[in-house]
Amino acid sequence: MGCAEPDREQLRSRLAGDLDARPEILLALLHGSFARGEAFRDIDVVVWLFRIQVSGALDPNGAPVYRED
User: Fold this and answer.
1) What gap in Å lies between CA 51 and CA 31, rounded to an integer?
2) Residue 65 phi/psi, 5° resolution?
3) What is the residue-averaged pLDDT of the chain?
4) What is the pTM of this model?
5) What pLDDT was estimated at residue 46?
6) Backbone angles phi, psi at 21, to 5 degrees
7) pLDDT bracket for residue 25 (50, 70, 90)
8) How far, in Å, CA of 6 to CA of 20, rounded?
9) Which positions ≥6 away from 64 have C-beta within 8 Å?
10) Which distant-in-sequence residues (6+ apart) come within 8 Å of 65 by Cβ?
11) How many of the other CB atoms lie within 10 Å of CB of 20?
């Protein structure tokens, strides 16, 4: 697919913002061709979760319920 550098930075910024908004994500790392600045067809992300969602549980506002490990 390939992507111009400003587009790549816009994608990286949006992805960082979306991941940062998720409280269960402790760390996320980009790797692969996108991270190396090469032509890419997908974006590879390693995600380290801090919390585990309680299966199907939702709080009164409809947000997922998590438990700390």
Assistant:
1) 23
2) -100, 135
3) 83
4) 0.61
5) 95
6) -75, -10
7) confident
8) 21
9) 53, 54, 57, 58
10) 53, 54, 57, 58, 59
11) 10
Q: What percent of the chain has pLDDT over 70?
A: 80
pLDDT grade, residue 58 (50/70/90)? confident
3-state secondary structure of 55: strand
State the greatest distance between any 2 C-alpha atoms of the chain, in Å, as a whole number.
45
Q: Is 7 left (phi over 0), alpha (psi -120 to 50) or beta?
A: alpha
- Amino acid occupying residue 37: G
How large is the average pLDDT for residues 16-24?
A: 90
Q: Where are the alpha helices (DSSP H) in the chain?
A: 5-20, 33-36
Query: Bridge-partner residues for 51, per DSSP?
Result: 68
